[in-house]
Specification:
The complex is a heterodimer.
Chain A (H helix, E strand, L loop, with lengths): L2 H54 L11 E7 L7 E7 L8 E12 L2 E10 L1 H49 L16 H51 L5 H31 L7 E4 H15 L6 E6 L3 E4 L1 H17 L6 E7 L2 E7 L26 H12 L2 E6 L3 E7 L1
Parallel strand pairs in A: 6-8
Antiparallel strand pairs in A: 1-4, 2-3, 3-4, 5-7, 8-9, 9-11, 10-11
Chain B lengths: L1 E5 L3 H13 L3 E5 L2 H10 L4 E5 L1 E2 L2 E2 H10 L5 E7 L3 H9 L4 E5 L3 H15 L6 E4 L2 E4 L4 E4 L2 E2 L4 H12 L4 E3 H14 L5 H16 L6 E4 L3 E4 L3
Parallel strand pairs in B: 1-2, 1-3, 3-6, 6-7
Antiparallel strand pairs in B: 4-5, 8-9, 9-10, 10-11, 12-14, 13-14
Helix pairs in contact in B: 1-5, 2-3, 6-8
The chains are: A alpha+beta, B alpha/beta.
Chain lengths: 415, 225
C-alpha cells in the first residue's frame, strides 16, 4: 500500500469520525441553547400573566396565534410549574407540530387555574435542520477536497520520490552509468535524491578502483612471469641436468603456465566486464566449430576419445575473438574433464550448440559450475574457463546452461 | 644477423639475448626509450625486439620513427598480454609480429627466425637442416628432394624444431605453439608424445636419421643424429 493511500485512508476515517461526533455535539448544544431561549420567552409570558392577574385580579383572555397559545384550565391538585416539549396542532389538540410549553398554576379571584403557554418550536427545528444540512455539506466538501488533493497534488509532490526509486531499481553496476537526478522542491526528497546519487557515485568509483586494481595487478605480474619463464627456458638448455632436476623444472613450467593462464583469464574477464569488446559481427559458427573439433581430435589422440559431431550452418552475432575463446573453453573443458576412452559429442544447430562429454560427476553443486574458481581440488585448470564462457554469453545476450545427464556433462548454448 | 633487444626488464632482456646468441645471432641490449631511439637512428639491424611499455616512453613511438625514416628492420613487439589495442596499433604501424608476455624463448626464436627469413633479400622461404629442407611458402618438407607426407601439425612441429635447432624445447612450449595457449595449456601433454612419435617415424623412414631426442622426460631437442 502506498504511503499516501494509507495516510489518506486514516485521514478520511479520522475526519469523518470527528465530523460526526462534532456535529452530534453541535446539534445538541444548539438545540439546548435554542430551547433555553424559548423557555426564556415563555418565562416572560408567565411574568406578564402573573402581573396581569396581580393588577386586575382576573385572568387575561386566552390567545391563540399561530406560534403562541395561552390556554387556561382548571388546576389539578398538586400542579407544579413545569416546562415540556409536545407535539400538537395550532388549535391546541395533539398534532404534529413541535411546541414548547410552560404550565404553571395561578390564583385568580380565589380560584386556582392552570395556565399553559405554548410557543411553536417549528422555527427552532427548521434552524437546527439547516445547521445539520450545512454541516453535512461541509463534511462532504471537505472529504471531496481531501480526495482530490491526495489524487493530484500529493501524487505530483511524490513524483520525484518515485523517480529516484525507479532509478535505484534500474541501477546496474556493470553499466557504470550514474543515476539520473530527480530534482524536487521538497527538502526530504531532494536530499534523498542527492544522498542516493552520492552513494551510487561512490559505489561506481570504488567498483572501478577495484577493477583497475585487478587489472593493474595482473598486468604487473606479467613481467616477473616472463622473467621466470625465460630463465626456465635457459635452465633447460644447460647440460648435465639430472632426471630429478628435470622433474622439478617440469613442475615449475606447469606452475608458471598455470599462473600465466590464470592471469590472462582474469584480465580477459575484466576486459569483458569493462565492455572493451565490440558487439561483434556475424560469426559463422559452423566453420569455427569444425576447425576447433579438428584441433580437438588432434589433441585427443592420446586420450582415445570418441568424437561425434553434427554441424549445421549457424551464425551468431559475437565478437570473433570472444567467439573463439568461448569455443576453446567449452571444448578444452570437454577433453580435460573426460575419462580415458570416453566420448565428446558436439551438436550445432541454428540457435543451439550442445557440447557433451563423459566424465566423473561434478565434485561440487551443479549450479556453481559457472562460478569463478569452481573446480575440483586437484584440477590443473584455472577455474575461470567456464566463468569466462558465462561472461561472454551475458555480454552477447546468449544463455549457457549445464546439466549432468547421469553419464554425460551436457552444456547447452542458446544464441 | 644483428638483433636489437629493447626491453626495460634487465633479466628478461638478458634471457632473450642469451637464447638468441645461442641461435647464432648478434644481440645488442638496450633498456630505455632514449637509448633505443639513439641506437635505431644510428645503426641498422635485421630485427628489432620492441617492448611497448618502457619507463621513459612508448615503444610505439620508436616503431613510428623507424617507419618514418624508411628503415627496413623487422620489428617484433613483445608486450604485456591482452593489450589488444597495442597489438592492433603496432601491427597497423608496420610491426611484423606481436608476442605477449610471458612467452617461451623458443617461441620467440621461431618468430624471429620467420621475420628474418621474410626480410632477407628476395624473401628466403627455405629452412635447411642437413638434408632436410622446409619450404615455408609451400608448407612442405623434403628430404633429398623427396617430399615428406606430413600432417599440418607435424609440419608446424618440424618447423618449430628447425627454428630452434640444438635447443631443448619444453612440452609446454610445444603445446602452446601448436594449439595456442587457450587449448594447449593445462591439458595432459601426452598428446604431444603421439605427434612427436609419428613425426620421428616419418623422418626416419625418409632416411634422414633420428633428429628428435627426448630430454630429461620433459622436453625435446632437435639436432643432428
Amino acid at each position: 500500500m502506498k504511503l499516501f493511500t494509507r495516510y489518506a485512508r486514516v485521514n478520511f476515517l479520522a475526519t469523518i469520525l470527528v465530523l460526526i461526533v462534532g456535529s452530534f455535539c453541535y446539534f445538541f448544544i444548539i438545540r439546548f441553547v435554542l430551547i433555553r431561549q424559548l423557555d426564556d420567552a415563555l418565562k416572560i409570558e408567565e411574568a406578564e400573566i402573573l402581573d396581569y392577574v396581580a393588577q386586575k385580579g382576573k385572568l387575561p383572555e386566552p390567545t391563540n396565534y399561530k406560534d403562541q397559545m395561552i390556554v387556561f384550565g382548571p388546576a389539578e391538585k398538586g400542579l407544579k410549574r413545569q416546562f415540556r416539549s409536545t407535539y400538537q396542532d395550532p388549535e391546541g389538540n395533539r398534532g404534529h407540530e413541535p411546541f414548547r410549553q410552560l404550565e404553571f398554576p395561578i390564583e385568580a379571584g380565589g380560584v386556582r387555574f392552570s395556565v399553559t403557554v405554548s410557543k411553536s418550536q417549528v422555527e427552532t427545528e427548521d434552524l437546527l435542520w439547516l445547521i445539520v444540512a450545512i454541516t453535512v455539506g461541509v463534511i462532504i466538501l471537505l472529504l471531496l477536497i481531501q480526495f482530490l488533493l491526495n489524487r493530484y497534488l500529493l501524487q505530483r509532490i511524490w513524483t520525484p520520490f518515485y523517480g529516484t526509486l525507479g532509478a535505484i531499481q534500474k541501477f546496474n553496476l556493470q553499466s557504470r552509468s550514474p543515476l539520473q537526478r530527480h530534482p524536487s522542491d521538497i527538502d526530504e526528497f531532494s536530499s534523498l535524491d542527492l544522498a542516493v546519487n552520492q552513494m551510487t557515485d561512490k559505489i561506481i568509483g570504488d567498483y572501478q578502483a577495484l577493477k583497475d586494481f585487478a587489472d593493474n595487478a595482473s598486468h604487473e605480474m606479467q613481467t616477473p612471469l616472463a622473467v621466470i619463464n625465460s630463465k626456465l627456458d635457459l635452465l633447460l638448455q644447460e647440460r648435465d641436468i639430472t632426471e630429478l632436476q628435470g622433474r622439478h623444472l617440469q613442475a615449475m613450467y606447469d606452475a608458471v603456465g598455470r599462473m600465466s593462464r590464470l592471469n590472462q583469464s582474469l584480465l580477459l574477464l575484466t576486459k569483458i566486464g569493462n565492455d572493451q569488446f565490440g558487439r561483434g559481427a556475424s560469426v559463422a559458427l559452423h566453420d569455427l566449430v569444425r576447425e576447433k573439433v579438428a584441433q580437438l581430435e588432434e589433441m585427443a589422440v592420446a586420450h582415445k576419445l570418441q568424437f561425434t559431431t553434427h554441424v549445421e550452418e549457424a551464425t551468431v552475432n559475437m565478437d570473433p575473438y570472444l567467439a573463439d575463446i568461448l569455443l576453446n573453453n567449452l571444448f578444452s573443458n570437454s577433453i580435460r574433464h573426460n575419462t580415458e576412452g570416453g566420448s565428446v559429442r558436439v551438436d550445432l544447430r541454428q540457435g543451439t550448440l550442445e557440447v557433451a562429454n563423459t566424465g566423473e560427476p561434478l565434485p561440487f553443486e551443479a549450479d556453481r559450475i559457472f562460478d569463478r574458481f569452481a573446480k575440483g581440488k586437484h584440477s590443473e585448470s584455472t577455474g575461470l574457463g567456464l566463468a569466462i564462457v558465462r561472461q561472454i554469453c551475458e555480454v552477447h545476450g546468449c544463455t549457457i546452461s549445464y546439466r549432468w545427464t547421469g553419464i554425460e556433462h551436457l552444456f547447452t548454448l542458446v544464441f | 644477423m644483428k638483433i636489437l633487444i629493447i626491453e626495460d626488464e634487465p633479466e628478461l632482456n638478458a634471457s632473450i639475448a642469451s637464447y638468441l646468441r645461442g641461435q647464432g645471432y648478434l644481440c645488442e641490449s638496450v633498456f630505455t626509450f632514449a637509448e633505443a631511439q639513439e641506437r635505431v637512428e644510428t645503426f641498422d639491424y635485421d630485427c628489432v625486439l620492441l617492448d611497448i611499455t618502457l619507463q621513459d616512453g612508448s615503444g610505439l613511438d620508436i616503431l613510428r620513427s623507424l617507419k618514418q625514416s624508411g628503415k627496413t628492420e623487422g620489428v617484433l613487439i613483445i608486450s604485456a598480454r591482452h593489450s589488444l589495442d597495442d597489438k592492433v596499433e603496432g601491427l597497423t604501424l608496420g610491426a611484423d609480429d606481436y608476442l605477449a608476455k610471458p612467452f617461451h624463448l623458443s617461441e620467440l626464436g621461431a618468430r624471429v627466425s620467420a621475420i628474418i627469413r621474410r626480410k632477407q633479400f628476395g624473401g628466403n622461404n627455405l629452412v635447411q637442416f642437413g638434408d632436410l629442407v622446409l619450404d615455408t611458402m609451400a608448407h612442405t618438407a623434403k628430404v633429398a628432394d623427396k617430399e615428406l607426407d606430413l600432417t599440418r601439425k607435424e609440419y608446424q612441429l618440424l618447423l618449430y624444431f628447425a627454428c630452434n635447432r640444438g635447443r631443448v624445447l619444453s612440452k609446454n612450449a610445444i603445446a602452446e605453439h601448436l594449439w595456442g595457449e587457450d587449448l594447449g595449456g593445462g591439458v595432459n601433454y601426452d598428446f604431444i608424445y603421439t605427434h612427436i612419435k609419428n613425426l620421428r617415424r616419418k623422418l626416419m623412414d625418409a632416411g634422414t636419421g633420428d633428429h628428435i631426442q627426448s630430454v630429461y622426460g620433459m622436453g625435446y631437442k632437435f639436432s643432428a643424429p
